[in-house]
């Protein structure tokens, strides 16, 4: 009856508007239906494909005996689990063997040039080859034996295809036995008695490349795994609620800013001014008009020292904190600090003068892109979501966590965000919370939450100059206090819950036990800085390798990197070590005016806790995906056998080179040490990107390549 009545209305003279409304309604229904179907299904496929070969980091708290057991167990279970993976996703290992023909066209290859050799003596060369072989073998063993067994429970954000709660753990479709060979790699999967072998180089030596610019909504600030892009995405939120990478590897180049890009202001002048055009953003322009800590002065953005969130008295603010808690000895007892949120960075700059290394966590909701401003100024910064997944840090590594008017409701969602801070905070570490005019309800909720996790409030005062209320909490140093709680809420995490598992792992509403055995990292507070830089704790299993790594990189950097590569280190500030093992490369640069982001790949042995132990910092990452930062963030990328260790793991290894191009500033450098069979095609890829090859060197099938990025864009 209703349909017949509607049809009669349409036939009437006034039915034209009814027709138009009917068509519009149908169109909107189709759009929203398609958006719902495509977003849910595709995001699930993306997450499963990105987990295919991820092995969970080895917990430094796990004893060697347990490693051997899980290694044997992984061999037995690999066949059955890989079969299950194929049934579920249909993409286990298959995406690694396919050779995509996208972006491959004919171009004119450039001829190679004879370039000067780096300064490396014969003894160092032999050490390089031997150490690289040992590290590759160690990584292969680690990737086999470090799968989390008891990561139970699933927590989904409702909008993204999340894993089964095991994160970078129980993904047993990864090869059980893997060997990195000189010319080819064979991956054998034990599946119902049959063996499948894959062979092939990392880069196709015959491939030739053509490039295009990315056509994305965020344009020159495109962050592939953070920005929500695409036609349907334009009707949704600007950025993903959680990290979610494109289904296909990114093979386009991020354009330069609209007004071009000039070499950044060098350190330390960049602390007080930067080039506006390099970070120009419409919302940033509106932000500048409302805040006095940043001013537009001609072509520069300037940062007056007397105009900060602390009323120009950030040093007085730091002294105020240390007076309340004398054990906070900036630069000695406290060395590594996590700053939640990016604002005007005066806190980070002031701590830097006290030998405190502070990394700022730029939240993905920062649409003004203040994190990019911090990077341009030369301050360590990451961009990440803080919602339902763990941050990519190991447990118990930060000496202090600081939140000054960061706008986070720590007590919401059952307090899971504060529980995540408790996970990454060192036992006896400090959580400093500063705010203006806090609501009574929030105050009461925060008091109840911190009491439930046994944090001791050391001080609660108002700093007169900034008029900020400052609270300093301290995490307990032993598990005894947990047993004294009347209500065991939140509960203690299960014994098989790995606190160091952090890659695509959901936050857990529980308290991890505080380490007490000498074999566990975090059981004791580190030595004072700078003594902790070359201290080797009892829980470190391979002290000899760590010592050799430190000595090796100290010699390499002093004799070759600082003098033999043609790099002007006065223009280098932001550095990334893409395959940090023990942090030896970063340790060798401590006396330089640089900071180093140490990246420990998720398929490698978990050495990141030791990097923090020695007073450096870093992050877990899978290089088959884009890194969580803005384009043009780094002056120098260092990749030591990155590609040989990732052989056949990623769908399209060339996309890693594209990501390196995105991360590097024009005029920035890439130093790659790897096998000659990898460096030769890599050199041609860089030439196709119009990078300038500054130096190549090879001996005994091992080599080094040094290249500099230009302003070229297609």
From TrEMBL:
> What is the membrane topology noted in the UniProt record heading this document?
Single-pass membrane protein; Single-pass type II membrane protein
Q: Which Enzyme Commission number(s) are listed? A: 2.1.1.-
- Keyword Oxidoreductase in the entry? The reply is no
The annotated regions of Basic residues compositional bias extend over 95-114
* Entry-linked InterPro entries: Put_SAM_MeTrfase (IPR004159), SAM-dependent_MTases_sf (IPR029063)
Residues that span the membrane, as ranges: 16-37
Biased composition, Basic and acidic residues: where in the chain?
A: 65-87, 115-133
Give the chief site where it resides.
Answer: membrane
| An example Gene Ontology CC term for this record | trans-Golgi network
Q: Which CDD domains match?
A: AdoMet_MTases
The Gene Ontology biological process annotation of the record reads: methylation
Which keywords does UniProt give here?
Glycoprotein, Membrane, Methyltransferase, Signal-anchor, Transferase, Transmembrane, Transmembrane helix
Which stretches of sequence are listed as region Disordered? 57-202
Q: Where in the cell is it found?
A: Endomembrane system; Membrane
Sample GO molecular function, one term: methyltransferase activity
Which intervals carry biased composition (Acidic residues)? Answer: 149-163
**Family of this protein:** Belongs to the methyltransferase superfamily.
User: This chain belongs to which protein, by name?
Assistant: Methyltransferase
């Amino acid at each position: 009856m209703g349909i017949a009545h509607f049809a009669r209305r349409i036939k009437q003279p006034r039915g034209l508007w009814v027709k138009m409304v009917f068509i519009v309604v149908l169109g909107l229904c189709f759009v929203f239906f398609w958006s719902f179907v495509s977003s849910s299904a595709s995001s699930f496929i993306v997450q499963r494909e990105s987990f295919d070969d991820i092995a969970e980091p080895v917990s430094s708290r796990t004893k060697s005996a347990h490693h051997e057991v899980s290694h044997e167990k992984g061999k037995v279970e690999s066949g059955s689990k890989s079969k299950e993976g194929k049934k579920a996703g249909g993409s286990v290992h298959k995406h690694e063997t396919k050779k995509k023909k996208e972006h491959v066209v004919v171009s004119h290859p450039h001829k190679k040039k004879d370039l000067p050799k780096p300064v490396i003596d014969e003894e160092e060369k032999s050490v390089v080859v031997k150490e690289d072989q040992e590290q590759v073998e160690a990584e292969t063993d680690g990737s086999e034996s470090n799968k989390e067994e008891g990561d139970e429970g699933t927590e989904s954000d409702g909008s993204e295809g999340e894993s089964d709660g095991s994160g970078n753990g129980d993904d047993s479709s990864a090869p059980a036995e893997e060997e990195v060979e000189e010319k080819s790699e064979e991956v054998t999967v034990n599946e119902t008695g049959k063996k499948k072998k894959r062979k092939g180089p990392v880069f196709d030596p015959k491939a030739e490349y053509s490039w295009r610019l990315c056509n994305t909504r965020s344009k020159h600030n495109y962050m592939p795994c953070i920005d929500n892009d695409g036609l349907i995405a334009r009707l949704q939120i600007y950025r993903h609620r959680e990290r979610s990478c494109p289904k296909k590897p990114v093979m386009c180049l991020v354009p330069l800013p609209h007004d071009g890009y000039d070499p950044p202001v060098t350190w330390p002048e960049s602390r007080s001014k930067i080039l506006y055009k390099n970070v120009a953003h419409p919302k940033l322009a509106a932000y500048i008009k409302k805040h006095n800590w940043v001013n537009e002065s001609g072509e520069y953005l300037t940062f007056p020292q007397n105009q900060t969130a602390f009323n120009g008295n950030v040093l007085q603010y730091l002294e105020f904190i240390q007076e309340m808690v004398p054990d906070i000895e900036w630069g000695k007892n406290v060395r590594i600090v996590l700053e939640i949120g990016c604002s005007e960075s005066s806190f980070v700059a002031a701590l830097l003068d006290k030998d405190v290394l502070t990394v700022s966590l730029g939240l993905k909701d920062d649409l003004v892109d203040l994190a990019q401003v911090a990077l341009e100024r030369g301050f360590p910064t990451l961009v990440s979501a803080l919602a339902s997944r763990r941050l990519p840090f190991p447990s118990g590594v930060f000496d202090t966590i600081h939140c000054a008017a960061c706008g986070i409701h720590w007590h919401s969602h059952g307090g899971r965000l504060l529980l995540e801070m408790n996970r990454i905070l060192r036992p006896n570490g400090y959580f400093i919370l500063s705010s203006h005019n806090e609501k009574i309800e929030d105050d009461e909720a925060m008091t109840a939450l911190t009491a439930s996790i046994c944090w001791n409030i050391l001080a609660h005062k108002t700093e007169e100059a900034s008029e900020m209320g400052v609270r300093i909490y301290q995490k307990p140093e032993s598990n005894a206090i947990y047993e004294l709680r009347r209500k065991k809420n939140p509960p203690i995490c299960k014994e098989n819950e790995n606190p160091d598992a952090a890659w695509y792992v959901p936050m857990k509403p529980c308290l991890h036990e505080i380490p007490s055995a000498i074999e566990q990292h975090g059981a004791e507070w580190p030595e004072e800085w700078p003594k902790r830089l070359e201290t080797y704790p009892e829980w470190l299993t391979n002290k000899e390798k760590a010592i050799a790594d430190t000595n090796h990189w100290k010699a390499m950097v002093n004799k070759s990197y600082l003098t033999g590569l043609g790099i002007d280190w006065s223009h280098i500030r932001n550095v990334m070590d893409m395959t940090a093992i023990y942090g030896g490369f970063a340790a060798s640069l401590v006396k330089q005016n640089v900071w180093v982001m140490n990246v420990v790949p998720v398929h490698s042995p978990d050495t990141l806790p030791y990097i923090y132990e020695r007073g450096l910092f870093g992050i877990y990452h899978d290089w088959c995906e884009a890194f969580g930062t803005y384009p043009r963030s780094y002056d120098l990328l260092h990749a030591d056998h990155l590609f040989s260790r990732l052989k056949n793991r990623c769908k399209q290894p060339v996309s890693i080179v594209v990501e390196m191009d995105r991360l590097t500033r024009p005029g920035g450098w890439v130093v790659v040490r790897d096998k000659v069979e990898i460096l030769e095609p890599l050199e041609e890829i860089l030439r196709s990107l119009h990078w300038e090859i500054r130096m190549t060197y090879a001996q005994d099938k091992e080599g080094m390549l040094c290249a500099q990025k230009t302003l070229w864009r297609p």
